Amino acid sequence: MPHRNSRWVGYTKIFNILDYTALNFPAGKASKDLDSKGEPDYSPRNPHDAWTWGRYNAETMDGHHVGLQLVGRRFEEEKVLGAATQIEQVLH
Fold first, then answer.
1. pLDDT of residue 73
2. Which of 11, 26, 30, 77 is placed for a possible disulfide with 61 were both Cys, Cβ 3.0 to 4.6 Å?
3. What is the DSSP string of 28-65?
4. What is the SS3 assignment for 68?
Protein backbone atom coordinates (compact mmCIF):
# COMPACT_ATOMS: atom_id res chain seq x y z
CA MET A 1 0.00 0.00 0.00
CA PRO A 2 1.52 3.35 -0.96
CA HIS A 3 2.29 5.52 2.09
CA ARG A 4 -0.62 7.73 3.26
CA ASN A 5 -3.13 6.01 0.97
CA SER A 6 -5.01 3.75 3.36
CA ARG A 7 -8.67 4.55 3.97
CA TRP A 8 -9.09 1.79 6.54
CA VAL A 9 -8.07 2.89 10.05
CA GLY A 10 -8.48 -0.58 11.56
CA TYR A 11 -4.90 -1.51 10.71
CA THR A 12 -3.00 0.90 12.96
CA LYS A 13 -4.62 4.20 13.93
CA ILE A 14 -7.25 2.76 16.23
CA PHE A 15 -4.63 1.30 18.57
CA ASN A 16 -3.01 4.72 19.02
CA ILE A 17 -6.36 6.27 19.85
CA LEU A 18 -7.16 3.52 22.39
CA ASP A 19 -3.63 3.72 23.87
CA TYR A 20 -3.11 -0.02 23.38
CA THR A 21 0.35 -1.51 23.39
CA ALA A 22 1.50 -1.98 19.80
CA LEU A 23 4.78 -3.00 18.24
CA ASN A 24 5.85 -3.21 14.60
CA PHE A 25 8.86 -5.11 13.29
CA PRO A 26 10.17 -6.38 9.93
CA ALA A 27 8.85 -9.83 9.03
CA GLY A 28 10.09 -10.46 5.49
CA LYS A 29 9.70 -9.10 2.01
CA ALA A 30 6.89 -9.04 -0.53
CA SER A 31 7.25 -11.47 -3.41
CA LYS A 32 5.41 -11.23 -6.70
CA ASP A 33 5.91 -14.98 -7.10
CA LEU A 34 4.26 -15.79 -3.76
CA ASP A 35 1.59 -13.07 -3.59
CA SER A 36 -1.58 -14.02 -5.35
CA LYS A 37 -4.61 -11.78 -5.77
CA GLY A 38 -6.56 -14.71 -7.14
CA GLU A 39 -7.19 -16.48 -3.84
CA PRO A 40 -10.60 -18.14 -4.28
CA ASP A 41 -11.72 -17.81 -0.66
CA TYR A 42 -10.81 -14.12 -0.15
CA SER A 43 -13.76 -11.91 0.69
CA PRO A 44 -13.29 -8.24 1.66
CA ARG A 45 -14.46 -7.38 5.17
CA ASN A 46 -15.95 -4.06 4.08
CA PRO A 47 -15.72 -1.51 1.23
CA HIS A 48 -12.52 0.00 2.69
CA ASP A 49 -10.84 -3.41 2.76
CA ALA A 50 -11.94 -4.05 -0.83
CA TRP A 51 -10.49 -0.68 -1.90
CA THR A 52 -7.19 -1.42 -0.14
CA TRP A 53 -7.02 -4.93 -1.66
CA GLY A 54 -7.57 -3.44 -5.11
CA ARG A 55 -4.64 -1.03 -4.67
CA TYR A 56 -2.08 -3.79 -4.07
CA ASN A 57 0.24 -4.43 -6.99
CA ALA A 58 2.50 -7.46 -6.58
CA GLU A 59 4.83 -6.29 -9.39
CA THR A 60 5.63 -2.88 -7.87
CA MET A 61 5.78 -4.19 -4.29
CA ASP A 62 8.15 -7.06 -5.13
CA GLY A 63 11.10 -6.91 -2.73
CA HIS A 64 9.60 -4.29 -0.40
CA HIS A 65 9.76 -4.98 3.31
CA VAL A 66 6.71 -6.41 5.08
CA GLY A 67 6.04 -5.48 8.69
CA LEU A 68 4.15 -7.35 11.36
CA GLN A 69 2.16 -5.50 14.00
CA LEU A 70 1.44 -7.03 17.39
CA VAL A 71 -1.19 -5.43 19.60
CA GLY A 72 -1.85 -6.03 23.27
CA ARG A 73 -4.01 -4.46 25.90
CA ARG A 74 -3.00 -1.30 27.71
CA PHE A 75 0.03 -1.73 29.96
CA GLU A 76 0.95 -5.11 28.46
CA GLU A 77 4.25 -4.03 26.98
CA GLU A 78 6.13 -7.01 28.44
CA LYS A 79 3.72 -9.52 26.88
CA VAL A 80 3.91 -7.87 23.46
CA LEU A 81 7.71 -7.69 23.60
CA GLY A 82 7.85 -11.36 24.67
CA ALA A 83 5.59 -12.42 21.81
CA ALA A 84 7.65 -10.38 19.34
CA THR A 85 10.83 -12.04 20.58
CA GLN A 86 9.35 -15.49 20.02
CA ILE A 87 8.05 -14.63 16.54
CA GLU A 88 11.37 -13.06 15.56
CA GLN A 89 13.20 -16.25 16.58
CA VAL A 90 10.86 -18.34 14.42
CA LEU A 91 11.26 -16.02 11.42
CA HIS A 92 15.06 -16.03 11.60
1. 92
2. 30
3. EE--TTT--TT-TT---SSHHHHHHHHH--HHHHTT-E
4. strand
Mean pLDDT split into 10-residue runs, the chain, 92 residues: 68 83 89 73 82 83 90 94 92 80
Measured between alpha carbons, how far is 30 from 20 in angstroms, rounded to an integer? Answer: 27
Q: What is the rounded distance in angstroms from the CA atom of residue 26 to the CA atom of residue 15?
A: 19
**Number of folded domains that form the chain:** 1
Residue 4 domain flag: no
Hey, what's the torsion of the CAs at 54, 57, 63, 67, to 10 degrees?
A: -10
Residue 6 in domain: no
Residue among 53, 63, 67 at smallest CA distance from 25: 67
Task: Specify if 8 maps to a domain.
Answer: no
